[in-house]
Amino acid sequence: MSTKDFISVTPNAIPRDVCAQIVERMRRSNQLQEGKIGGGLFPDLKKSRDLAIAGVAEWRDVEIALNTAVLEATKRYIREYPQALIAPLMLQHQPPGGQMRRLVADDFATMDEEQLQQLTLTCLRPGHTNLQWYTAGEGGYPYWHCELYPRDTTCETLHRHLLWTIYLNEEFEEGETEFMFQDRKVKPETGALLIAPTAFTHTHRGNRPQGGDKFIATSWILFQRAENLFGAQ
């Protein structure tokens, strides 16, 4: 029986000094808002101060650095779990001078970095990055939840394929990302990047930090929309 839990943690995805700079900028920022979830503002479920940085000029450098790290980790994830792409998309490939055929899992082991990156960017896209500040003893997201839900009329939330979190500090106790069915707690370590599936199989929660505040960056890796993947039907 396989023991894979499809949860990947990449240590040192972001340098520690860069994480410290992001935390300091968050502390100084006057742009933070009360943290929301998909249905709105529910501090009994999630209590945080959040900063959405997508498209914000003064945070563009941070957004680029985080998305670059996420892309590299996503490629490693796909190489380890190629079914993340080939199972839902039935991908085809035509090698130079060869016949068109379906990609299989073994193809990913020998695929070069340029090919893998092109395939990843063709199939997937980054979500909007959110910086989050959880206050010691009261902040957290202790409600068991997943990342897919049908409330959004644009169906963007149903395009979420993988979730990611980058831990920006570790000067606290507890505060783990806990996965229900995998019976696993991921301990925050500065600069580490967590990737996991978004579906109910990976129902999770963010436990409250104790003895110090917790800072993270988080978002999703989404499928490209159908019109981009398949063209006009």
Automatic annotation (TrEMBL):
Top enzyme class: oxidoreductase
Keyword Oxidoreductase in annotation: yes
Residue stretches making up the Prolyl 4-hydroxylase alpha subunit Fe(2+) 2OG dioxygenase domain: 134-221
Keyword rRNA processing: no
Superkingdom of origin: Bacteria
Molecular-function GO terms, alphabetical: oxidoreductase activity
Entry's EC annotation: 1.14.11.-
Keywords: Oxidoreductase
Gene3D superfamilies: q2cbj1_9rhob like domain (2.60.120.620)
Name by which UniProt lists this protein: 2OG-Fe(II) oxygenase
Organism: Lysobacter brunescens
